[in-house]
Specification:
heteropentamer, A alpha/beta (310), B alpha/beta (230), C mainly alpha (255), A: alpha/beta, 5-stranded mixed β-sheet, B: 230 residues, 9 strands, 22% strand, binds adenosine-5'-triphosphate, binds magnesium ion
Chain lengths: 310, 230, 255, 255, 230
């Protein structure tokens, strides 16, 4: 099945730009995992203005990466989407803070904090949930709107700033370390809020009509991720990532890869892509509670792991 | 061909003073007629009204045997993107090429056909503009100081030639040169300011068809008549 | 005229919506990709009051920003109208600033000015001023010889007079551009709010965008359109009044 | 002149950098808020080759986008120049589209056109065309009576001729605006790249922003500035040539 | 006061044909002098050269006793933002208010001082523009068809009044009205086209200071002399 002519062409839409947090996706493409499965996959970068689930429906993409809240919202509006894998076992959306300024051991420590919130973003939902757990609301903290850059945090005007732990988090930690400041990350999961992050999705139609194709794609992708997360392959993975993410320095990428590994494969025996229905159920419950969806969408019924395509 | 005006009144909007008040006159037949009067009396205003009278049915202006009326004036310009010669070619109907050549000769514009309009002297601009109109279909052509910046000698030659070439058309010649008007025009409508008591009236001109040795007495009489009309 | 503007906008919007709905039907897309009419209406009913307040908030900043832009455009346009070294320097500066995407400059602006109202205003003005500047430069750089000759020959020409003459002779062009730039000011303010603010319709759009809520975006676009149409209509009427009063161009009344 | 543009840009850039560094010193900000000179230089050395390629990539799209914008502006400007109902309708449409922030329209554009080259080009053109349109409308709506009278009176007026006359009489204004719009096309393309995340310097800026790498942003701004200066200089020279050839406005040679 | 030209040549850039070729002449003293010649001969070109000759030291033009030279022409306009009367007020030096009033009377512009420039008739525009110049400091004022669109009667009245009021100033009057030039001007520089063999020359005019009963024979002689000069 190596001959190019027989390969099936597929489009795979990421959530964000090429960087170390999609190391597995890059590795799959670079190391021929897809080709070996008889697939010719084009991976496309994403942005907030692009939405993998919409592209699935429009036929611009066959597979994609979407955050859990996107999936749940889409289901709420009648989109036909299924979840194939949950890339991050721990949500990389965390809050960075300087460790000499704060110690968060209990959620009530958040009271009165100056923190950044992306209005309308995941972090707002998560933070609201955390605050609710502590019996607080956004009015009990000082909120600064998050925008494209980090100046408010860098200039020390806010204490807690939301970042992606394994990309921006690493960069910021590095920048501050150079100035002799050390940082910590506030991880909501540590406080019982297990909000699912990015997952691999496809349309229900694809899952029903072409289970073989889904299986081929998914197993190639997960194999690639397994390989990419293997510390033994670190050099190759970094070289592959470097080809797509030229702007980031090597040692930063190395640190990012380490951080990614912790989030994707927290324990050596965790299978990459493992779907945790409980986390999904919690995510849906949170969104329902905050009025982001009007009625239950039963997202757990839309979860299909690799085994279901065997 | 007849042009008639029975009690025309006109004032610019937003202005109280009448520019034209109770104007009555009639002009007959083809040939060179004139509108004459002191600066600011309303010649241009009248000419523009006449040129567009069909759009203003309330005006007491009547014509018979006059189809197309064209109005030309001395500040008109030709577009600048090509030479004046090419512009003339473009607006000249196919069957009037000979007429065009003849007019260019009479108007002495041969040497400047290659120039842009903005490169012409004022008199050359006047002439170039007028030629365009003469090449069009018209029954009545109004010349509002259209040759004001041309020297007298050439202007007279042009007037005589136009009279001859377009003897079946009607012209309304507006000029400040009394001698010319008196000598070459048929009917001269002398406009007077509404504030004066004298009504506007028609004086008959000499309607010369060639540059003759001046028939001084009769010309003087006409000029005197015109000047005393306002 | 104002009324006409509004219903014309309604027509445009309706056509736009119809195209979207046809695409939806044609490709049988879910409400997530393109919301159905009922969802849009529902969202509109829910959101429109709030969005209206947001748009008015945005509009107030936009008006201020437009004022600043007009000032800035004339300021730079007048300084940069000469083909001298200094004039060319000013133009180079003005042009270059424009070439930078505001998103790239935003961090620097925030560092220098903080992220309050001032930054928002500056960003709005920066987006709005440049097109104005181009027109002002075009007008200010072209001499009106027939009028200026006297003042130059008699040594009476001052830059104020030169500017006045050229502005006056191009009054209708300038009022067109100024009235038109209202939409730019609006767009600029929305972008500024989108980047950094917690108020205004730009902020609401960002939330809708993050939540993939196209119905909310469509509602916001409708609100923006209505308000812009009214504002623009008022500006145009003002422009006509200025022309009528200052200009009194009765030249072509008869012809 | 081209040369002058470049070194003038250098001066502007140097002043800008100096201000930043003074702010840095004054508030004793650390390198991660405002990078120091050595860090900037280091980044520049590292990045500039790559960024240069990116800017050239962007420029090529910008040139195409500008072409489309010019076409679009004239198209709409010519259709919308009349004060008739249809003309006003076209203006309302054109104005409204502009008032919408591109970020709000982007999702819809991506839905309708996909996220290929076409969307990027469309976004670039949408940002660039409007200011052009305003100027074109201003020019196209103002009759040139001294020239047009003949053609109207003799029934020879066609819309092409009318447009040609008005464009020609305002040639210097139009060339100013067209040359100036180059920077808008550039900004538009960068924004499009920023949103569409594909290639070009806008994409690089997005990455640098995401990484909070101000030094890289400053390098990118420098590259953009240089390239824009050169492009603009070339356009202006072309404009002069067009005016010299087509215009041949020798009117004021002596006076 | 003396104006001298010793071998002036001029051609427009990009054009091969000479507009002015080897022009020699001298004019002395204040008063009304004229430049005359057929349309397109180069009167305007010469006048503009003269007005700016100090910026072009290569030109063989010399003056003595002439400080400020002003050039006025018939297409000039006043700004439109306020009435012509207010514009006149603004540009009139404080010590010339009486002169201004007198000129307005002579130029018969009293009734239109409240109007915008664009609302004036052409002749009114001509006159309004000229008044501005007469209120300025100048030693030599060039009138390039500045009164071309004014009626003859008023124009003559204006010429005579200006001659009297500004008897110590020098004027260069460019007009196509031969009779006027011959009658009211001192030295008449008659320009000829370079292609003709005849050189340009100065003809002495009658320099009348009032409207007399025509001294026909002498006027006819001057007019004949002027016409035969080209
Ligand atoms: N647009 C206008 N608005 C108001 N008044 C005007 C307008 N145009 C002309 N007038 C006035 O109307 C009167 C007649 O003007 P018109 O141009 O018809 O005179 P004219 O006889 O052609 O004079 P001329 O020989 O100087 O050209 C003048 O007093 C002038 O001031
Ligand atoms: N800008 C220019 N470029 C080239 N040639 C020009 C330019 N201006 C004038 N000419 C030519 O120079 C010659 C003299 O023009 P000029 O305007 O001086 O004539 P004039 O004597 O004032 O004529 P008129 O009495 O018609 O105003 C004309 O043949 C004209 O075509
Ligand atoms: Mg008139
Ligand atoms: Mg002349």
């Amino acid at each position: 099945p190596d001959s190019r002519a027989e390969q099936i062409s597929l489009n795979y839409r990421l959530k964000w730009l090429f960087n170390t947090s999609v190391a597995g996706d890059i590795f799959a493409m670079e190391k021929g995992f897809f080709a070996a499965a008889g697939l010719d996959v084009t991976i496309k970068e994403g942005s907030p203005e692009k939405d993998a689930i919409k592209e699935l429906e429009l036929g611009y993409a066959d597979f994609g990466v979407a955050s859990a809240d996107q999936v749940i919202r889409a289901l709420d509006k009648g989109a036909d989407v299924v979840v194939l894998a949950q890339i991050f076992q721990t949500n990389p959306m965390q809050w960075i803070y300087r460790d000499d300024q704060l110690q968060i051991t209990r959620l009530s420590d958040l009271q009165g904090c100056r923190m950044g919130i992306t209005y309308g973003g995941n972090d707002e939902t998560i933070m609201k949930t955390l605050l609710a757990k502590a019996g607080l609301t956004l009015r009990d903290v000082q909120v600064t709107g998050v925008r494209f850059d980090f100046t408010p945090f860098l200039k020390n005007r806010v204490t807690l700033w939301p970042v992606y732990r394994n990309s921006q988090g690493v960069i910021l930690a590095g920048q501050l370390a150079r100035e002799g400041e050390s940082v910590r990350f506030f991880n909501p999961a540590d406080f019982g809020v297990d909000f699912v992050a990015n997952s691999v999705v496809t349309s229900g139609k694809m899952a029903a009509d072409h289970p073989d194709r889904v299986r081929q794609f998914l197993s190639a992708l997960l194999d690639a991720w397994e390989a990419a997360m293997d510390p033994a392959n670190q050099k190759q993975v970094l070289a592959a990532v470097k080809r797509y993410d030229k702007g980031t320095q090597g040692e930063v990428q190395k640190a990012q890869l380490d951080a990614t590994r912790d989030l994707v494969k927290p324990r050596p025996d965790t299978a990459v892509g493992r779907i945790r229905p409980k986390a999904w159920a919690q995510t849906e419950a949170i969104m329902l509670a905050q009025g982001m969806i009007k009625q239950p969408v039963h997202v757990t019924s839309r979860l299909r792991d690799l085994a279901s395509f065997q | 061909m007849r042009l008639e005006c029975s009690g025309l009144n006109f004032a610019y909007p937003e202005s109280e003073t009448m520019v034209i008040q109770d104007l009555w006159f009639a002009m007959d037949g083809p040939g060179f007629h004139a509108v004459f009067g002191p600066s600011g009396v309303g010649k241009t205003s009248f000419a523009k009204l006449l040129a567009n009278y069909r759009d203003r049915p309330e005006l007491p202006i009547q014509t018979s045997g006059i189809g197309t009326i064209l109005y030309s004036y001395n500040l008109e310009r030709l577009p600048g993107w090509s030479s004046t010669g090419r512009h003339l070619d473009r607006i000249c109907p196919a069957d009037r090429q000979d007429l065009k050549k003849e007019l260019i000769d009479i108007f002495q514009l041969g040497p400047v056909l290659g120039a842009r309009f903005s490169q012409l002297s004022m008199g050359q601009q006047n002439r170039m503009n007028l030629i365009r109109y003469l090449l069009q279909d018209f029954d009545l052509l109004i010349l509002d100081e259209s040759l004001a910046n041309v020297d007298e000698k050439l202007r007279q030659a042009i007037l005589l030639a136009v009279k001859e070439l377009f003897s079946h058309k009607m012209f309304l010649y507006i000029s400040h040169n009394l001698m010319e008007v008196a000598r070459f025009c048929k009917d001269i409508l002398v406009l007077t300011e509404p504030s004066r008591e004298k009504p506007s009236k028609i004086v008959s001109g000499q309607d010369d068809t060639r540059i003759s040795v001046l028939e001084k007495p009769s010309l003087d009489r006409i000029m005197l008549e015109v000047m005393s009309a306002f | 005229m104002l009324f006409r503007r509004i219903y014309q906008f309604m027509i445009v919007y309706a056509v736009f919506l119809a195209i979207l709905l046809v695409v939806k039907k044609g490709l049988s897309l879910s409400d997530y990709v393109i919301p159905g009419l009922s969802l849009i209406l529902e969202t509109a009913v829910q959101m429109s009051a709030g969005f209206f307040t947001d748009v008015m908030d945005t509009l107030s900043v936009a008006i201020l920003g437009q004022g600043i832009s007009i000032f800035l455009a004339f300021f730079v346009g007048i300084l940069g109208r000469k083909s001298s070294w200094a004039g060319s320097m000013i133009r180079v500066t003005a042009y270059n600033i424009q070439a930078y995407p505001i998103v790239a400059l935003a961090p620097i602006i925030f560092i220098l000015l903080g992220d309050g109202f001032l930054s928002r205003l500056l960003i709005a003005a920066m987006i709005c001023y440049f097109p104005l500047l181009l027109s002002v430069l075009g007008v200010m750089a072209a001499p009106v010889e027939d009028i200026e000759h006297f003042y130059i020959a008699t040594g009476r020409m001052r830059w104020q007079l030169e500017v006045k003459i050229r502005a006056f002779e191009n009054l209708s062009k300038l009022t067109t551009v100024i009235a038109g730039s209202a939409t730019l000011a609006m767009a600029g303010t929305i972008v500024a709010e989108f980047i950094a603010a917690n108020a205004g319709i730009g902020y609401s759009i960002r939330i809708a965008l993050y939540q993939s809520d196209l119905a909310a975006i469509l509602t916001a676009l409708f609100m923006i359109g209505i308000v812009i149409s009214v504002y623009q209509g008022i500006l145009e009427t003002l422009g006509e009044m200025v022309k009528a009063k200052w200009g009194s161009e009765n030249k072509g009344v008869l012809l």
